[in-house]
Design brief:
elongated, two-stranded antiparallel sheet, heme binding, 3 domains, Cytochrome_P450_fam2, Cyt_P450_sf, 56% helix, 161 residues, Cyt_P450, mainly alpha, 2 strands, iron ion binding
Length: 161
């Protein structure tokens, strides 16, 4: 075997397992597939339980090329979410979300949403004098109906709308 092939294979395998720093122990992942071949994708719970017996209640997996931390048991989940919430508060990176944020930015998307919301409210009459008159007329009608009735009254909801 060519020594360069051995070096290349070592580099691929070493890089596959060691690029996740500060992660709990877990099974050795395969390049590209990670630990997917170790899991029954129809019902992975039994495989996750088996791995928990071997690596403890907190262990790591690679799902494809993405690293993941598995919390198994109430105590492990409580410790992660309550006691070490700062370490576990991150979110997984998603290519679609990253692309949307990088292209438009969160400020631009907020401005677009604000502009759309105000435009929609204006279409329904926000800030228009005509809408104010309609609302006042309907309020007058409701007040007259309530004044005319004594005790129980029947109010037609179509009038309100």
């Amino acid at each position: 075997i060519d020594p360069w092939v051995v070096v290349l294979l070592y580099f691929i395998l070493f890089r596959t397992h060691s690029n996740v720093k500060n992660f709990p122990p877990g099974p050795w992942p395969l390049p590209v597939f990670g630990n997917l071949l170790e899991l029954n994708l129809d019902s992975p719970t039994s495989d996750l339980q088996r791995l928990a017996k071997r690596y403890g209640s907190i262990y790591s997996l690679k799902i494809g090329s993405k690293p993941a931390v598995v919390l198994n048991g109430l105590q492990a989940i409580k410790e992660a979410l309550v006691n070490k919430s700062e370490d576990f508060s991150g979110r997984p990176q998603d290519l679609l979300i990253n692309h949307a944020v990088n292209v438009k930015g969160i400020v631009l998307s907020w401005r677009e949403q604000r502009r759309f919301g105000l435009m929609t409210l204006r279409n329904f009459g926000l800030g228009k004098q005509s809408m104010e008159n309609r609302i006042l007329q309907e309020i007058d009608r409701i007040v007259r109906v309530l004044e005319q009735s004594t005790g129980m009254f029947k109010l037609n909801t179509v009038t309100i709308l």
